[in-house]
Amino acid sequence: MLLKVALHTHTVRSDGTLTPNELLRRYAEHGFDAVAITDHDQELTEEERDRLIIPDGLLVLRGCEVSYRQLGWQHVGYIWGETQLLRVLNHPQRYNMTAEEVHRALRDHRLDAFEITNQGSYCPRYEALSWPRVASDDCHAPEMINRAWIIVEVGERTGDAIITAIRCGEVEVVTQDGPKPRPPAE
């Protein structure tokens, strides 16, 4: 099955303008199948997760956007499946990282993937990288929803299946302008 996935979103718990429930409702209205809530340096508590009103058919992934000291406070997205953790180098374009710097960061810090978008805008400067890539709208406000996302093909609708597909590079990067090129073969 194909899933439309958002891996990088923020709520009023950090610097977003929507509550977690409003965020989930709006993503569901845009046809998303899975959403990770990745507020800055904190994840939803178990009590907050229990209070979520999850729209029918929407899979909610645990997440957090960590200010990663070892990379000069560059942001790294942590997304948990049922048993797996995905670590994504978030918006390297914002930090003006070169493709070589992104490659080194992914390799040296054992990250799984990188965002080839910056708040929904595609960053072609990273097209030559053969690492797994994702796209995100990095939603902080309602008007940012649906600017960029990934499509993954999975056999089951689980966080672990999504993470495995990303790690294997079985991802289609899409922005509001349409699908983007796949990474070059290694």
Commentary on this structure:
The protein is an alpha/beta fold. The chain has a single domain, classed as TIM Barrel. The protein is 18% helix and 28% strand. It is built from four helices and twelve strands. It has helices at 20-29, 46-50, 99-108, 159-167; strands at 2-6, 34-37, 59-68, 74-80, 85-89, 113-115, 117-118, 121-122, 133-134, 148-153, 171-175, 178-179. The strands form two sheets. A ten-stranded mixed sheet has the order 9-6-5-4-3-2-1-10-11-12. Strands 7-8 form a two-stranded antiparallel sheet. Strand 2, helix 2 (46-50) and strand 3 (59-68) form a beta-alpha-beta unit. The longest helix is centred in the first third of the chain and has 10 residues, at 20-29. The protein is globular. The chain starts with a strand and ends in a 7-residue tail after the last strand. The model has no long low-confidence stretch (mean pLDDT 96).
Number of domains in the coordinates?
A: 1
The profile of the biggest β sheet is:
10 strands, mixed
CA radius of gyration is 15 Å
Which class of secondary structure composition applies to the elements? alpha/beta
Distance between the termini: 26 Å
Count of alpha and pi helical runs: 4
CATH superfamily: Metal-dependent hydrolases
The proportion of residues forming helix, as a percent range, comes to 10-25%
- Indicate the CATH architecture: Alpha-Beta Barrel
β-strand amount:
25-35%
Q: Within the largest sheet, what's the order of strands?
A: 9-6-5-4-3-2-1-10-11-12
Number of strands: 12
CATH-defined fold name: TIM Barrel
Oligomeric form of this entry? single chain
Shape: globular
Arithmetic mean of pLDDT: 96
Q: Would you state the CATH class?
A: Alpha Beta
- Give the SSE string: EHEHEEEHEEEEEHEE
Low-confidence stretches: none
